[in-house]
Amino acid sequence: MKQTNNNTPSIMITIDVEDWFQVENFKPYIPFSTWDSRELRVEQNVHKLLDLFDSFSDNSIRTVEEDDETQIVAKDKEKIDIYQLHPEGEQETKSSKSCLPSEIRRSFHRGRSCQKKNSKFKIQNSKLPKGHGNSKFKTKNLKFPSRIKTTFFVLGWIAERVPNLVREIQKRGHEVASHGYNHDLCGAINHTELKQDLIKSKQLLEAIIGSEIYGYRAPSFSIDDGILKVIEDCGYKYDSSYNSFGLHGRYGKVNLNGQPQKGIAYKISDSFYEIPISNLKIKMPFLFYDRKTGFKVHSEEAEDNSTNQTNSKNPTNPTNTMAESSIPASQHPSIPASIELPWGGGGYFRLIPQKVFYFGVTKILKRSEAYLFYLHPWELDPFQPLVEQAKWSYRFRHYNNLHRTENKLKSIIQNFRYCNFVSCREYLRN
Ligand SMILES: [Zn+2]
Questions:
Q1: Which class for 345: exposed (0-12), middle (13-18), buried (19 or more C-beta within 10 A)?
Q2: Which of 1, 265, 289, 307 has its CA 20 to 30 A from that of 379?
Q3: Which of 92, 90, 62 is nearest to 77 (CA)?
């Protein structure tokens, strides 16, 4: 059913603009002092994202269906072919050419791994997406409520090297916000150093785009209550760094209990908000604790029956025995009433099957009427250098399904096209 403008759910797509060598897991292998000698690939990857968002500006577009993971959207068949065969091909702009030497590009097309001159990092030999040449085309009129607007949290170090990219982001209608300057974890430096980092990146970005920077995203979501105060003191109007998924060691914790809410945003003070990353909260109605036999999984129906007092008086009811000696796990002191699953984007988005991910996003939108998603430009780049020294778990997390990200992102936008795609600043203003 088409929703009216007033209750149309909002989706905030946010992009943390950093390059492949700046991720926290690679810091032991790629020290800050060597960043300047690394191949800068962020420019072409951000252009890929900007073009992808713009491709949804037309009301009439075509869809192509392959398998669950590779459904893509493009304006025409030629563009679809380009996306599939030459993922970097549609970015043959001046800037992308300068980032990607021609001999490396030729190597990609030969499908061989190659090694950059004088570099210990090998270029990954990625597979092309499956199904090329067997696509079934469908023409649909897909109407988007409005132009897609997103938020790019740009690292100051990157902005200094490619200021035109920052201007391009703004020119294409998206919000420019800050990802700090050096990508230091907020908790790894003292508050004075953090202040310097926050102010330096804010002033730099403001000088580049000529307007005020409102938002901040902490590297690896590394915030706490004290850090939030520092961010506010530096003149930011909102932070978007709280990730409630508790099993990631670097994610910070803040106490938002009792704070007034504006949609999914929390009002920290009159002029400062926290907009958390969206996660999927699952209640635990199906798990029962039985005093005699321990935990049991029962159907929802069984739980409903077991809590029905008339059933417990009926000796023929098969759920009766359980009902007398069981309590819902959600009421058991050692069991949380719900669990949070990481559903905000990044590596989890690349790992979770597409339709399962849709299911979770739909649940989040039903509950909150807003969803905040994050991604990095390097997550759309299957041809980035491979850091072979990194341990297996880090490599899996970083490189898993990179060749699918672009199509998955297109598909999710297409699937939730009834939503308003807004920047964080717009969300707070509405
Ligand atoms: Zn980052």
A1: buried
A2: 265
A3: 62
Q: How far is the CA of 376 from the centre of ligand 1 (A)?
A: 8
3 state SS of 15: strand
Residue with tokens 């002033």: 203
Please give the C-alpha separations between residue 109 and each of 124, 201, 385, in angstroms, as whole numbers.
13, 38, 16
Q: What pLDDT shows up at residue 430?
A: 84
Distance from the CA of 16 to the center of ligand 1, in angstroms? 6
Centre of ligand 1 to C-alpha 183, Å, is 6
Q: How many angstroms is it from 171 CA to the middle of ligand 1?
A: 23
> Which secondary-structure segment (H or E) carries 49?
helix 42-54
Pair 73, 56: CB distance under 8 Å = yes
Distance 300 CA to ligand 1 centre (A): 41
> What's the 67 CA to ligand 1 centre distance in angstroms?
31
Residues of the chain with pLDDT under 70: 1-6, 58-146, 246-249, 284-291, 293-337
Cα 106 to averaged position of ligand 1 atoms, centre (Å): 30
CA distance 221 to 213: 19
Q: 374-396 pLDDT, tens per residue?
A: 999 999 999 999 999 999 999 99
Q: What is the DSSP string of 264-302?
A: TEEEEETTEEE-PPP-EEEE-TTEEEETTTEEEE--HHH
- d(CA 187, ligand 1 centre) in Å: 14
State in Å: Cα 410 to ligand 1 middle: 22
For position 301, what pLDDT does the model report?
A: 38
pLDDT at residue 134, as a whole number: 37
Total-model pTM: 0.72
pLDDT of residue 346: 93
Mean pLDDT of the chain: 77
